[in-house]
Amino acid sequence: MGTFRDAVDAKALRFALGFPVLLAAAFVVCAVLLRPDLPEPLAVLWTSDGVTGFAPFPAFVGVGGGLIVIISWLVLLQAVPVSRPVLMRRIMMGTGISLSLFITAVLAAVLVGQAGVIDARLAQVDAIVLAMGSGFALAMGVVVGFVFKADEQWSVDDDRALEQALEQELDPDLARDKVRLWVHARSSVFVMLVVATLFPATLIALALPWLSGLLVAVAAVLAAFLFARVTADRSGLRVFVAGFVRVMNVPAATISSAAVSDVRAAEYGGWGYRSHGDTTAVLVSSGPAVVLKQTDGQRAVISGGNPDSAQRLAEVLSRVAARARGEGRS
C-alpha cells in the first residue's frame, strides 16, 4: 500500500488548503476596514418586499469567512488525489477557484451595498461589485483549469531518490551500513505514569483546572522522553530523545568498539539521558544495550530495544568504525 504522500499531489494540496484561508482572511480584513461605514445589524436577506433578514456584523463576517474556507476545501481537495483522471483534477481545481471567488464576490457586494447607509432596511446588494466579481471568478476558474499541471512532475524528492539509488548501485554495502530504530520504555512504565499523573489531574481539574493541565503536560513530556530515535550510518551514531532532541553524536572515526550488553538503567543514573564523568547514557529501560568505547576514553551506552536490534546496531557501528579508520569493509 502506498503512503499518503504518494497518493496526493503535494503542491496541489498546499494550494487547496492555503488559498481559501488566505482569501477568507483578506475578506475579513476588508470587512473590518468597512465597518465604520456599515449599519448595525447588517441586511443579509432580500425578497421582492425588501430586506427581510438581518445579522450582526461579527456573525456575518465569521460565517462568511467560514463558508469561503469550507466550501472551497470541499471542491479544491477533489483535485488533490493523483489517482483521478487529469481532466477531472483540472476541472475540480478550476471549479474550486471560481466558487471561492464567487462566494467572496457575493459577500463583498452585500457589504459594499450597505456602506454609507444608515438604515439597513434601505440597503441593496451592489450590482457592479457582484457582476465584476462573478466575471473575474469565472475567468480565473477557466485560466486555472487550463494552466494547472495535473500530470506527474519531477520534484526534489525524485532527485533525492535518484541520488540514493545511484549511491546504492555504486556501493552495494551502503544499505548494510545503515540502521534506524526507535526504542521506548516498557508499557508498564507508561501505565505507572498514567496512574501517577493523569488520574490525580482528573480530580484536581474540579478545583484547579490550570494545575490539572500542567500535570497532563508534564506527563506528556515525560512520556515523550521515554522514547528515543537511534540512527547509525557511515558518519557515526546519533541519538534523539523524544525523536527530535539530539543528545548524542558520536563520529564513526572515534568509535573503538561496540558491543551488546545487558544493563540496568539504575547503574547509569536511571532512565533517559544521563552523563556522569566519562560515560554518557541514553536508556529508556533496562535490558539489551549497545556499549561504545571511544578513542578518547569516553563511553556511550544506548538502549537497543530487543537483543536482535541491539546486535544489529552493534555490528553496524563496528563495521562503519572500521571503515572510518581505514581497516577495510569487513
Short account of what is shown:
By secondary structure, this protein is α+β, with helices and mostly antiparallel strands. The protein has helices at residues 4-7, 10-34, 57-76, 86-112, 127-147, 156-170, 187-204, 209-224, 307-324; strands spanning 42-47, 50-55, 179-184, 227-233, 236-241, 245-251, 255-263, 272-276, 279-283, 287-294, 299-303.
Overview of the molecule:
The chain is an alpha+beta fold. It folds into two domains: 4-147, no CATH class; 177-324, PH-domain like. The protein is 50% helix and 21% strand. It contains nine helices and eleven strands. The chain has helices at residues 4-7, 10-34, 57-76, 86-112, 127-147, 156-170, 187-204, 209-224, 307-324, and strands spanning 42-47, 50-55, 179-184, 227-233, 236-241, 245-251, 255-263, 272-276, 279-283, 287-294, 299-303. The strands form three sheets. A five-stranded mixed beta sheet has the order 7-10-11-9-8, with helices on one face. Strand 4 (227-233) and strand 5 (236-241) form a beta hairpin. Helix 2 packs parallel to helix 4 (86-112). The longest helix has 27 residues, at 86-112. The protein starts with a helix and ends in a 6-residue tail after the last helix.
- What class, by secondary structure content? alpha+beta
Quick one: overall form? elongated
Order of helices and strands: HHEEHHHHEHHEEEEEEEEH
CATH topology of the largest domain: PH-domain like
Tell me the layout of helices and strands.
Layout (H helix, E strand, L loop, with lengths): L3 H4 L2 H25 L7 E6 L2 E6 L1 H20 L9 H27 L14 H21 L8 H15 L8 E6 L2 H18 L4 H16 L2 E7 L2 E6 L3 E7 L3 E9 L8 E5 L2 E5 L3 E8 L4 E5 L3 H18 L6
Parallel strand pairs: 9-11
Antiparallel strand pairs: 1-2, 3-4, 4-5, 5-6, 7-10, 8-9, 10-11
